[in-house]
Amino acid sequence: MPRLRPAAADGAEEAPRLSIRLDLGGGRRIGPGKVRLLEEIGRNGSISGAGRALRMSYRRAWELVEALNQAVGRPVVETATGGARGGGARLTPAGETVIRHYRAIEAESNRVAAGRLGELSGLRPG
Amino acid sequence: MPRLRPAAADGAEEAPRLSIRLDLGGGRRIGPGKVRLLEEIGRNGSISGAGRALRMSYRRAWELVEALNQAVGRPVVETATGGARGGGARLTPAGETVIRHYRAIEAESNRVAAGRLGELSGLRPG
What we know:
The structure is a homodimer.
Chain A: E1 17-23, E2 29-30, H1 32-44, H2 47-53, H3 58-72, E3 77-79, E4 89-91, H4 93-121
Antiparallel strand pairs in A: 1-2, 3-4
Helix pairs in contact in A: 1-2, 2-3
């Protein structure tokens, strides 16, 4: 095994971390982009506003919401009347559940991975 | 919270799982594609053979190996003399370490995520 040393204590260097993607089977996938969009819809109260905040087209934002609905098997966002662009939007309980579980899995996975991530990050020429 | 029920016990449906990507900071990323390639190089004893097994061009396989060298800060593969395509290749200790840590992180993360993944997978219309 190569000699390991801790990663450089360089303030400019981010800490190593894990990013995750949930695969619920049958092509139903939930990754960081969809979860960020859901969170932004919750904050923003609008799909178009959330899309703008994430520099995403309105069409793309709707496609991701639709993909999430399919992944979860229930609507994750509820739109108010007033037309597609006119009304507001808010998360459904299923949408809240997706965010909560995704972020918890992310935090727990990072916790169990921290030691090994640090070792990999510290693999440098001896 | 929506009513939860277990995912359909349909044999054709894969179990929900987590896929992971390691971000070591400074753009140094290790995901499932690079790790599968390393494993295949270990089995195959050749970068070109591993690339063929994964339906990947020789050039693409080398690019991924180079990206891994950069990510880890050490060579992950050692090539025998005999020219770029001629000689064999084998994993270095650093290469073995990458596989070992990646697969362990993947297994441990899936273990801690299993309950929540099952719940998300079971979100269905009540």
